[in-house]
Design goal:
The structure holds 2 protein chains of 2 kinds. By secondary structure, chain A is mainly alpha-helical. Chain A has 15 helices and 2 strands. Chain A has a single domain, classed as Orthogonal Bundle (ABC transporter involved in vitamin B12 uptake, BtuC), CATH 1.10.3470. In chain A, strands 1-2 form a two-stranded antiparallel sheet. In chain A, a hairpin with a 2-residue loop joins β1 and β2. Chain B is built from 15 helices and 2 strands. Classes of the chains: A mainly alpha, B mainly alpha.
């Protein structure tokens, strides 16, 4: 219990609590359970992507192509829906996850087999994926009236009082919390990021583990792609443009170290919720939505500065100045 | 950010090094020059409008502003850091100039404000990276949102216009015949950065830091100070690019220069600078600037939309890094 209270997750939970309390003093309606459920539902896509991004960052990589992957998958499933309205949602879900997985694997292969820095790979695939959406759609939009009712209804369908979108986020959180803490693959992600050389000597293939991280991130982005277009009932080239930065921000705020090896699913979840609360509170407290970009930017910088301070004491410093330079 | 796993393979040590001439002929820069010539020839066959002095002069505008930033970025990447906030610095500097125009500041004042904003942003990145020891990728992803975010707060969905007519010279003026002011600036900066990187102690220390920061520190190089100066230079160049771009467009929107960080990094990497730091040359970046300018201009003449060009840029970025590695794998 004491260990939990001192952890970063507890700190973040406290920060979210304070934030909600501050908003509640002026707008009590914001903290009603119904509205908080809405906020969670609205944050679900960010949570899904943050889980994938967290795993990628754990392995010392970064995936900047998630939003483009989401948009491309979203466009493809929307076009399938327009061409063949009879295709059941289960098939659409499978296609979305499958396509997302393949796109993630492309990133993974380039990082694993060709050893290209992940930031270069995903900056490149980010633009390529967006370009492909344009080629596929010719720049046209897929609008609400073209989508079948079943296609649009799925994320909204309520089960036990919560929309499907929220349930999927909850299930993903539980699933990956188990994977990260209870399976060898989960341990491998931590090992690869914590100390790649040691991981190699213990028989873990560093590149292959990174490949799986990108694959998971891609699969989650693909799944979110379908949920995104069906929820907002529109698909075009620029959907979720710049969303990859929010996803990285959620992870950094959630205490996931960009140097790899440190982080938890709970952190990613709370980081995403923190951003989600801010985003939903801005219109309530009457601040222009144009502030959001600057606020996420500041949140990233503050979070990374706080995290760096927390991890500064790690390890024994033999040569103080040398340590500083490295 | 990648990790290479060393395989204990026997290392082949050649009897003699390659001759200087052979090394030069087989260098990345020569290869790139061939590519540039090939694209030039292909363009002149593809479109009858390409081989025309004015049309070629127009083509230079595709890369001069980005190349200014790329020179400073090349030094920064060689030193092992990166700045992804350059395009957002353009937005903020342009917004600052636009705001100054509304209160009647003249052209000299605008230039100072543009450069000053760039320097301030660079200093902000530099302090976070060198003083607080934060990773530059995350810091500049953060400032990328922050700087452009401030532009959005100031402008929202509005735009600043009404720049004085003398301000138009920087982006639209010609020094002589078809030689634009921007192109002259590009050439002068290429020489300055070439000398700085290849002929001065400062340049040597940039390479030393990129190869081994701890080793560089023990040999008496003030690592943090050099890195801070490089962030300042990158900010300054972004401010300069903001002046040229704003002058050329004649208006400021918060989305100005969106996505340029990618093109600048692509230009630097295409120029043979290792993204992991420690190697690269300014002549390489200069040729890469021409290659990218010619590709986008050629595709533009063929009426290819901008977003499709971005596929080409993205593929180019991955391709130029992947091909040498594939070749090395295939030979091994």
């Amino acid at each position: 219990m004491l260990r939990f209270l001192a952890s970063r997750e507890a700190l973040l939970l406290g920060a979210i609590g304070v934030l909600l309390a501050l908003i509640a003093t002026r707008f009590p309606a914001f903290v009603t359970p119904a509205n908080l459920m809405d906020v969670f539902n609205d944050t679900s896509p960010l949570i899904l992507l943050a889980i994938g991004q967290m795993i990628v960052i754990l392995t010392k990589c970064i995936d900047l192509s998630v939003a483009a992957n989401l948009a491309l998958t979203g466009m493809v499933v929307s076009m399938i829906n327009v061409a063949l309205p009879g295709v059941p949602v289960v098939v659409i879900l499978a296609v979305a996850i499958g396509l997302g997985t393949v796109l993630g694997m492309v990133n993974g292969i380039l990082v694993w087999k060709l050893d290209i820095p992940p930031i270069v790979v995903t900056l490149g695939t980010m633009t390529i994926f967006r370009g492909i959406i344009f080629l596929l759609s010719d720049g046209a939009w897929v609008n609400s009236h073209e989508m079948s009712p079943a296609f649009k209804a799925f994320p909204r369908a309520e089960v036990l009082g919560l929309p499907m979108l929220s349930w999927i986020a909850i299930l993903a959180v539980i699933l990956f919390a188990v994977v990260m803490t209870r399976t060898t693959l989960g341990r491998a992600f931590y090992a690869v990021g914590g100390n790649p050389h040691a991981a190699t000597y213990t028989g873990i293939d560093v590149g292959k583990t990174q490949f799986w991280a990108f694959t998971i991130s891609g699969a989650l982005a693909g799944l979110t792609g379908y949920l995104w277009v069906s929820r907002y009932a529109v698909a075009y080239v620029d959907i979720a443009s710049g969303f990859e930065l929010d996803v990285v921000a959620a992870c950094v705020i959630g205490g996931i170290s960009i140097a790899g090896g440190v982080g938890s699913i709970g952190g990613a979840l709370l980081g995403a919720i923190f951003l989600g609360v801010i985003k939903n509170a801005l219109p309530v407290v009457n601040i222009s939505p144009f502030w959001q970009l600057a606020i996420s930017g500041s949140a990233i910088i503050i979070a990374v500065a706080v995290n760096a301070r927390a991890s500064r004491t790690k390890g024994r410093i033999i040569l103080k100045t040398a340590e500083h330079a490295a | 950010m990648t990790t290479t796993t060393e395989q204990p393979t026997g290392r082949h040590i050649p009897d003699r090094l390659r001759s200087p001439l052979e090394a030069r002929l087989k260098s990345w820069e020569s290869l790139l020059l061939l590519v540039a010539i090939a694209i030039f020839v292909a363009n002149s066959f593809a479109s009858p409008y390409f081989l025309d002095a004015w049309s070629l002069s127009d083509a230079t505008f595709n890369f001069t502003e980005k190349a200014m930033i790329a020179f400073a970025m090349a030094l920064l990447i060689i030193s092992g850091e990166i700045d992804l906030s350059v395009a957002s610095i353009i937005a903020l500097a342009s917004t600052a100039m636009g705001a100054a125009v509304q209160v009647g500041v003249g052209t000299p004042g605008l230039v100072l404000i543009g450069l000053g904003t760039g320097l301030l942003c660079g200093a902000f990145n530099g302090v976070l990276v060198t003083r607080m020891g934060l990773p530059s990728i995350v810091v500049t992803i953060g400032t990328m949102s922050l700087f452009r975010g401030i532009s959005y707060i100031v402008l929202g969905d509005q735009a600043f216009r009404g720049y004085p007519s003398s301000f138009a010279f920087f982006g639209q003026g010609y020094v002589w015949w078809v030689i634009s002011f921007e192109f002259v600036l590009f050439a002068v900066l290429a020489v300055i950065y070439g000398v700085l990187l290849h002929k001065t102690n400062f340049g040597r220390s940039v390479y030393a830091i990129g190869n081994n920061a701890t080793g560089a520190m023990f040999s008496g190089i003030r690592v943090d100070r050099v890195k801070f100066i490089l962030f300042l230079l990158t900010g300054l160049m972004s401010g300069l690019a903001a002046i040229c771009l704003t002058s050329r467009l004649g208006s400021t929107r918060p989305s100005i220069g969106f996505g340029w960080e990618l093109e600048v990094v692509t230009m630097v990497v295409l120029g043979g600078v290792s993204i992991l730091g420690g190697s690269g040359t300014i002549p390489g970046v200069v040729i890469a600037a021409f290659v990218m300018g010619l590709v986008t201009f050629g595709l533009g003449l063929l009426n290819v939309p901008g977003i499709v060009m971005s596929i080409v840029i993205g593929a180019l970025l991955i391709g130029v890094i992947a091909l040498p590695r594939l070749y090395a794998k295939w030979k091994a």
